[in-house]
Amino acid sequence: ESDERVHEVKISKEYKLQKHPVTQLQYFLVMQHNPSYFNKAEYAEPGVSPITINGTTLFCPNCPVDSVSKLDAEKFIQAFNMNNNDKPFRLATEAEWERAAKGPGKHSQYLDAQWIANHVLHKGNSGGQTQPVGKRAANGYGLHDMIGNVWEHVADFHQLYPQEPVVDPRSAGIIPVIRGGAFNSCETVMTPTKRAIIDGKVSTNSALGFRVAR
């Protein structure tokens, strides 16, 4: 896209990302409800029995939670941090997310058909639904589903990339950025640099999820 210009970014601080997107089970255990569209018997994980907790059945507990807005993700993190005495969790910045998604390899690998087949859940191989996290191969940093399965919320809002070098960039605004593509995305546009936007912090759909960072 026109705003995906090449520019120099430096990340000066160490950070960690969750190995995979937040699952339906993880979300339920913190928030006591599951907003996921793909929590139905027909989307159950093959060979895995549904889990019922306090009267709520999770048909695919290991699938990424979906249908969460950016505000939902922030509320989850706030609630989770209330019981966490360690370094608090948060959403990754857009720059942190992209660096992690690229891994240590060359960007050209993400255009390779075999790499996509091994690592990416997309429109052509998803069967029209999310699938359990971690089933596709991890990238060079050991992270699963960075590309595909569900789009992921990040901390930043949409702005054009600067032309000058930047350090630890953060952006404010009203239009959230999402990254990574999803089960219903075309494989030809699914790379670590792909950006997309949603209408606002309460906007959601069945292809939206997130992972935490710290």
In words, what does this structure look like?
Helices cover 17% and strands 12% of the residues. By secondary structure, the chain is α/β, with parallel strands linked by helices. The chain is globular. The two termini are 29 Å apart. The model has no long low-confidence stretch (mean pLDDT 91).
Shape annotation: globular
Order of helices and strands: EHEEHHHEEEEE
Number of strands: 8
The separation of the N and C termini measures: 29 Å
- Strand-residue proportion: 5-15%
| Count of helical regions | 4
- What portion of residues is helical? 10-25%
The averaged pLDDT comes out at: 91
Radius of gyration: 17 Å
Ranges where pLDDT stays below 50 over 5 or more residues in a row are none
Strand order of the largest sheet: 7-6-4-8
| Oligomeric state of the chains in view | single chain
SS-derived structural category: alpha/beta
Main pleated sheet: 4 strands, mixed
